[in-house]
Design a protein that fits this description.
There is one protein chain. By secondary structure, this protein is an alpha/beta fold. 34% of the residues lie in helices and 13% in strands. It is built from 15 helices and 16 strands. A 7-stranded mixed sheet has the order 8-9-10-11-12-15-16, with helices on one face. Strands 2-1-3 form a 3-stranded parallel sheet. The protein starts with a strand and ends with a strand. Keywords: Carbohydrate metabolism, Glycosidase, Hydrolase, Polysaccharide degradation. It comes from Setaria viridis.
Length: 527
């Protein structure tokens, strides 16, 4: 994504980061005092341990009730809310479409909360890791809307030795028609070729799984009950049609994505497939008439609703090959995992991305470029579910906390996407693992998870549903958030079996895991 303006706090750490990011750009950095970090007086610059030891009462107030934390009549967090609103006003009045903001943790929390309409008392309802990214879009009323919170997938690269091999042989990377390379994952076009110092990627994946099994053998089936197999960028079975940090943004409504089939290995596969079918002229190059940078899909000849290439014999040929290669990649990994973990008592699972930006269109372009041949005329998730069922693997998907009413794009439908994924899992009698897409602890988000989980009701005997609250952070254990979360878990488990407790006032701390699992009609919190 190209940014028109970069805003930064003038404080040294954020300033240095912004200068590195913005190096070489024509426009200068814009420093805003409203992006400065909160001033915590005596606690500033101290470790938690030192602050707790030297200023126990002040520290306790800061940890348990930051909105009312004060020194000499000054309330830094309440003042931060006013500062955050000032920052939003300065940012939103600046000409341009895409803005980058580099700032600090507390002010970023305030920016998130003010965008959500949350008061200072909800300061710890959100958290952001160092290096984490938050994404906002601006609606037609000029209001900032939170689209993604604390994204960190971009911080987990491939091993260095693999990246070095990709530097030597660039075609090991996924490649789009502009010859832009993506190094989040090795191109599945070379799955079975000895391109990694004499080993194929599948052999490397197999060795890694076997090493994991041998290392944690004593825990498998008891402590470790499920192994989720990474199958693509961000661990999901998909092509990197957009970088993970962009594809995980619920508001990426303008991202059609790019087909990732232009490395020499994918091109060879496409050519061979066309030759087998006797239509060799379709085997050179890739799809035509696509433009992932085009925000309006109706202006592309491939994704156009009426007469677009996606609904022609050539389009069907290309999309069947492209999506078929992805399903084959997933099957190879499931086959390996099934063989390696057989007899250990663990379930294997794979994750499918919840790509809903264009669900209410005919072509579903962002799904097509990610490898899901799902259109108005075709169910693209059923073949994946059938493949998982063949190896008794569980299907994992997100979107459980997202509501259509919060979307900024009328073509998007996270609820529709989830209904289709859940339907495919039910048809194939698959265990289903749900996840939240963003880290939110407000009642609206948690209640949506409860509603979404009911989509799996009426499943076959022997299947199970579990929900994994991901991106957990320490703010979850703040008293107000923990009370809200324990209520949520009780609702998810029908108040039957829930043992976790955290009563900070009485000194009792019994912590559960972040997951709830159903097996037929029984529910419990598990570790």
């Amino acid at each position: 994504m190209k940014f028109d303006v970069c805003f930064s706090s003038p404080i040294s750490r954020a300033k240095s980061t912004a200068e590195i990011i913005w190096q070489g750009k024509e426009k200068p950095l814009v420093f805003l005092d409203s992006l400065k970090e909160a001033h915590l007086f005596f606690l500033e610059g101290m470790t938690n341990a030192d602050a707790k030891k030297q200023y126990p009462e002040l520290y306790t107030k800061w940890r348990e009730d930051p909105a009312n934390f004060h020194v000499n009549g000054m309330y830094p967090i309440r003042e931060l809310w006013g500062t955050a609103r000032q920052a939003w006003e300065q940012i939103l009045l600046t000409p341009g479409e895409n803005f980058l903001v580099v700032t600090h943790k507390s002010i970023l929390r305030a920016l998130v909360c003010t965008a959500l309409g949350l008061p200072p008392e909800r300061f710890r309802a959100t958290d952001v890791n160092n290096g984490g990214m938050c994404v906002f879009t601006v609606n037609k009323h000029g209001e900032a809307m939170l689209q993604a919170l604390n994204m960190t997938a971009h911080m987990i690269p491939l091993p260095q030795w693999v990246l070095e091999e990709m530097d030597k042989v660039p075609d090991l990377s996924y490649t789009n028609r502009y010859q832009q390379r993506n190094k989040e994952y090795i191109s599945l076009g070379c799955d079975s070729l000895p391109v990694l110092k004499g080993r194929s990627p599948m052999q490397a994946y197999s060795d890694f799984m076997r090493s994991f099994r041998n290392t944690f053998e004593d825990y498998l089936g008891a402590i470790v009950t499920e192994v989720q197999v990474g199958m693509g960028p961000g661990g999901e079975l998909r092509y990197p049609s957009c970088p993970t940090e962009k594809l995980n943004q619920p508001g990426s409504s303008s991202e059609l994505g790019e087909f990732q089939c232009y490395d020499k290995f994918m091109q060879a596969s496409l050519s061979a497939h066309a030759q087998i079918l006797g239509i060799q002229e379709w085997g050179s190059g890739g799809s035509t008439g696509t433009d992932g940078s085009q925000p309006n899909l109706e202006e592309t000849s491939f994704f156009h609703a009426d007469g677009g290439y996606w609904d022609t014999p050539y389009g069907r040929f290309f999309l069947e090959w492209y999506s078929g290669m992805l399903v084959l990649h997933g099957e190879r990994l499931c086959m390996i995992a099934d063989a390696i973990f057989s007899g250990t008592g663990v379930t294997i699972s794979g994750k499918v991305a919840g790509i809903h930006w264009h669900y209410y269109t005919c072509a579903h372009p962002s799904e097509l470029t990610a490898g899901y041949y799902n259109t108005l005329l075709r169910d693209g998730y059923l073949p994946i579910a059938r493949m998982f069922a063949k190896y008794k693997a569980a299907l994992c998907c997100g979107c459980f906390d997202l509501r259509d009413t919060e979307r900024t794009n009328p073509e998007s439908s996270p609820e529709g996407t989830l209904r289709q994924l859940v339907g495919a899992a039910k048809m194939c009698n698959l265990p289903l693992n749900g996840e939240n897409s963003v880290t939110r602890l407000d009642d609206a988000s948690l209640n949506q998870v409860i509603r979404s989980s009911r989509l799996y009701s009426g499943r076959s005997s022997g299947t199970s549903f579990s929900f994994n609250y991901v991106r957990m952070n320490k703010s979850l254990f703040e008293f107000h958030n923990w009370s809200r979360f324990t209520k949520f878990v009780r609702q998810m488990s029908d108040a039957r079996t829930f043992l976790a407790r955290l009563d900070v006032r009485r000194g009792q701390q019994y912590l559960s895991s972040m997951s709830v699992v159903w097996v037929v009609s029984r529910a419990c919190a598990y570790t």
